[in-house]
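Worked example

This section walks through a single chain of length 145. The input is the sequence exactly as stored; nothing has been trimmed or padded.
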Amino acid sequence: MPFVLSSPDLKFIGRAVVVVKGWHTETFSMAVLAHAPEIFRFVEPKVFQQAVRMFGAEGAPTKILVVPALPQAEMRANKALNCCSRRALTPLIPFHVMLADLIGHIEVNRNYQKSDLLQMIRILKNYDFFKEPQLELFKSKRKRR
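Given that input, the structure is written out below as tokens.
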């Protein structure tokens, strides 16, 4: 499994402890990691063992950190990824990948009563606020009158 997950990789994860932090306006970098060590608190042995007990005895879940976006510069991205791998954190998933996968699996004709989030995504999808990603390739650059 790759260290940075994409949508097709998600089907290979049976159980996971997933942590999403409210840092969507930042780029995932060494500076962010240095100034926010609490990001990795969920992989500390005591905290993770509590999560394992919640899942039961069927094996340890995968630890996944949802990151806003990786740095564009390859060297900076590699430094941040190496820091994560040293913390026994495998793998990472960019927030846009997780969100796109969630949106893709929501059905507009299904009622998601138990989840306000899923219900909101269903409504937005029903009113065409989300478009199919591949259709944007053929979008004309000029507006039609």
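What to look for: The chain is about 35% helix and 10% strand.
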